[in-house]
Amino acid sequence: MEKLIITAAICGAEVTKESNPNIPYTVEEIGREAESAYKSGASIIHLHVREDDGTPTQNKERFQVCIGEIRKRCPDVIILPSTGGAVGMTNEERLQPIYLDPPPEMATLDCGTMNFGGNDIFVNTENTIIYFAEEMNKRGIKYELECFDKGMVDMALKLRNMAYIKDPMHFNFMLGVIGGINASTRDLNFLVNSIPENSTFCVGAIGKYEFPMVTLAIIMGGHARVGFEDNVYLSKGVLAKSNGELVEKAVRIAKELGREIASPHEARNILGLKINE
Predict the structure, then answer these.
(1) Could you tell me whether strands 121-122 and 114-115 are parallel, antiparallel, or unpaired per DSSP bridges?
(2) pLDDT of 60-75, one tens digit each?
């Protein structure tokens, strides 16, 4: 079984310091949390950025500064910016991080529209997905295909057959999100059995489901996503002090199950990213 790629989703767009005071907002805090995850074994940093007061933003300049801070601390880590942004943002707002110089190696590509609870709708029309994919293709950016439900997998496969999305495909299955598929063994198997054999996949889950679903992913030969974006607790009732603590727990589980941890260099090989020697 290939080595395990661990992605750390260090802050997200919605979770706040009210949930956990260690959630990073400032450039220095984002750099600190990325470094803690990297030193603990994460080879990918999934990056949202915030204003200093915690307001989510897709501002290109803010991404550039935060990425610079992460690069100072973790020169070889893979940085995976979000193009999801936050509910209500326009396509143009959301896409700003792919226009950095140099462009990121990877970026997220959400594969469908879903209810996010209450009156919130996260809108990703077919045309939006095609537009995002084409813009990433122009810049040589590999997409992580964000799938919150089975229909999103089907959309990604349809667009692959139409040549908008390129092989090999890399999926991120997010389980237990309101409006999406459940965090269960049955449903994860359903998703994994729906993707092409030459694909790779990562699994993340919300709250108490994070580590059970990550454990299943490790056993199934997939990859793991942990971090404050999805879950702020190390165990029941115990707030995590850092993203690094969450990554360390994933590493411990992987080692117990016989999976070695991939370095950023090894992760690039597994994902088919360009490697600068």
Answers:
(1) antiparallel
(2) 999 999 999 999 999 9
